[in-house]
Amino acid sequence: MIENLNIDKSQTPEKFQHLTSGILDFLLGIMQALDTLEKEIYERHQALQSERTMPNQIHEDEDSLWEDYFQSCEEIIAPVSAKPYRDTRTFGNPSHYDYLNNPATKIILVVKSTNRATVEFLFDRGIAKKEQFVLKNDNGNWKIDTKKYGYHDEATWRKDEL
User: Fold this and answer.
1) CA 95 to CA 91: how far, in whole Å?
2) How many Å apart are CA 22 and CA 7, to the nearest integer?
3) Residue 150 clears pLDDT 70, i.e. is over it
4) Is 131 a residue whose pLDDT tops 80?
5) Which of 46, 119, 122, 131 has a CB 3.0–4.6 Å from the CB of 106, allowing a cystine?
6) What does pTM read for this prediction?
7) pLDDT computed for residue 130 by the predictor
């Protein structure tokens, strides 16, 4: 697991504290799997770019790279998402969840029932940003119900895809 996490569980009542480790392990595992995949795809894409015959044309294998990426994302996301998978993800450098490796990232975990949890990540990547995951318990298994993002100085949350 990730080291030196700055986790705030203070808003979780004592009677639900026992759920916090499992919830974090579940969510961080998904995020790390997606992050690892994104980094791998980015490296493969860079290799294809270096093999292009003309800099303004795509490599003949780029379409299959995207297919691999979307299929791998679906394999990770579909079983843990309460909503149908949509292939809207992109990849880049730094990777989307690279903020997990930054010790300054703050995680706020709120569990107020056995059926619902909210996990917020506050981080800075040149701009102070936040992401929120709402998890629901589905017959003993946690599922990601929604994901949102916003900025530290705003109360507004915007819909986002996992």
Assistant:
1) 6
2) 14
3) yes
4) yes
5) 122
6) 0.91
7) 97
Band of pLDDT at residue 1, cut at 50, 70 and 90: very low
In the block, tokens 């969510």 appear at 27
Instruction: Please check whether residue 138 is in contact with residue 116, taking contact to mean a CB–CB distance below 8 angstroms.
Output: no
35: tokens are 């992050």
Question: Which pLDDT band holds residue 122 (cuts at 50, 70, 90)?
Answer: very high
Distance between CA atoms of residues 70 and 89, nearest Å: 8
- What's the rounded Cα separation, in Å, for the pair 41 and 148? 24
62-77 helix and 20-50 helix, angle to the nearest 10 degrees: 180
The structure tokens listed for 57 are 């044309």
Q: What are the residues facing 96 on neighbouring strands?
A: none
Beta carbons within 8 Å of 119's beta carbon, 6+ residues apart = 23, 24, 27, 107, 108, 109, 110, 132, 133, 135
Question: Residue 86 — φ and ψ, nearest 5°?
Answer: -125, 135
Measured in degrees and rounded to the nearest 5, phi and psi for residue 73 equal -60, -45
C-alpha triplet 149, 87, 5: angle, nearest 5°: 40
pLDDT at 3: 65
- CB of 8 closer than 8 Å to CB of 107: yes
End-to-end CA distance of the chain: 20
